[in-house]
Amino acid sequence: MPRLALYALAVCALSIAAAVVSFARGSWLGIVWILLLGVSSNIAWYYVRKAKNDKAAEQGRVTG
């Protein structure tokens, strides 16, 4: 798994924890953490797919 995807997954885990803590304390700031979770998960998904497609291109076949 690419390093940037791992970093994005770490941000996902931390933002989940921050959102839970924020909502548990009664703060609506947790919504910002949920939005950050969405962005970071999309970044992780992008880099995983990019690595998969790059590997397939090196082997001579391209996947969609």
Any overview of this molecule?
Helices cover 80% and strands 0% of the residues. The protein is built from 2 helices and no strands. The longest helix has 29 residues, at 30-58. The radius of gyration is 16 Å and the shape is rod-shaped.
Keywords:
mainly alpha, 2 helices, 80% helix, 0% strand, rod-shaped, Secreted protein, membrane, transmembrane helix
Question: Can you summarize this structure?
Answer:
The protein is an all-alpha fold and 64 residues long. It contains 2 helices and no strands.
What's the structural blueprint in terms of helices and strands?
Blueprint: H1 3-24, H2 30-58
The H-and-E topology, N to C, reads as HH
Helicity, as a percent range: over 70%
How would you sum up the global shape? rod-shaped
Oligomer: single chain
* Gap between N and C termini: 19 Å
Rg estimate, integer Å: 16 Å
Number of strands: 0
Structural category: mainly alpha
Q: What amount of the residues lies in strands?
A: under 5%
Number of helices: 2
How confident overall, as mean pLDDT?
92
- Provide the low-confidence segments as ranges: none
